Automatic annotation (TrEMBL):
The lineage of its organism: Eukaryota, Fungi, Fungi incertae sedis, Mucoromycota, Mucoromycotina. Stereospecific condensation of phosphoenolpyruvate (PEP) and D-erythrose-4-phosphate (E4P) giving rise to 3-deoxy-D-arabino-heptulosonate-7-phosphate (DAHP). Residues 8-50 form the DAHP synthetase I/KDSA domain. Belongs to the class-I DAHP synthase family. This is 3-deoxy-7-phosphoheptulonate synthase. Pathway: Metabolic intermediate biosynthesis; chorismate biosynthesis; chorismate from D-erythrose 4-phosphate and phosphoenolpyruvate: step 1/7.
Length: 69
């Protein structure tokens, strides 16, 4: 993507406060901030992924401006 590839137009990141997932068990309290559906990455990993993606988008735009793509 950083080289100017424009085929990637969106991403879906499974993210929550706490990583992983948990099952709903009757009588057992849920862990606050952890998914009950899909496995998720935690908040810190989410920030890192979004920062990396933002950098790649900025680079793709820079390449597009300088190469006329």
């Amino acid at each position: 993507m950083e080289a100017g590839d424009a085929r990637l137009v969106g991403v879906m990141v499974e993210s929550h406060l706490l990583g992983g997932r948990q099952d709903m068990v009757p009588g057992k309290p849920l862990v606050y901030g952890q998914s009950i559906t899909d496995v998720c990455i935690d908040w810190d990993a989410s920030v890192a992924v979004l920062e990396r993606l933002a950098h790649a988008v900025r680079e793709r735009r820079r390449v597009a401006l300088t190469s006329g793509k």
